Amino acid sequence: MAKKKEGHVIAQNKKAGHDYFIEETYEAGIVLKGTEIKSMRAGRMNLKDSFARISNGEAFLHNAHISEYEQGNRYNHDPVRARKLLLHKKQINELIGKTQQKGYSIVPLKVYLKNGFAKVLIGLAKGKKNYDKRETLKRQDAKRDIERALRERQKG
Fold first, then answer.
1. What pTM does this model have?
2. What tens-digit pLDDT sequence spans the chain (156 residues)?
3. What does the alpha-carbon distance between residue 41 and residue 94 come to, in Å, rounded to a whole number?
4. Distance from C-alpha of 13 to C-alpha of 128, rounded to nearest angstrom
5. Where's it mainly located (predicted)?
6. What b-and-e string marks burial along 134-146, b requiring 16 or more CB atoms within 10 Å of the CB?
7. Measuring CA to CA, which residue among 5, 8, 74, 76 is closest to residue 38?
8. Beta strand 51-55 pairing with 58-62
């Protein structure tokens, strides 16, 4: 029996790490239509400006763009429709409690395939101020310079 691919990343929200402090992460399933999963497997998904919101005890992913499937004809989907996220009731209640605090939101970090199913890694995020962003960039630059210097010493 062939082993299925583990964790094939389809889309990542690289801006999330820059704009937010990620406090906790949750893995959620996502409810998709047939043409959406086909389009996702082709890598035609974008998480830029997307967010998750909880309403009526259910989690939904908003503004995630999945391009229309080329061979989808009349069965095609709306590219930016709200998609339901599959989480346990306990996790949803936990997220409701934490997002009611000031400054917290739910941000999708990446979408990947796991055992043939589409999964979304969502994070409980707190917004960064501009000075926090600058501090993070300084730290990354310093780390990069140190690694570069170590590589140069090992070569020489």
1. 0.76
2. 445 455 688 888 888 877 888 888 999 999 888 888 888 888 888 888 888 999 898 999 999 888 887 777 777 777 788 889 999 999 999 888 888 888 888 999 988 988 888 899 998 888 878 777 888 888 888 999 999 998 888 886
3. 31
4. 16
5. cytoplasm
6. eeeeeeeeeeeee
7. 76
8. antiparallel
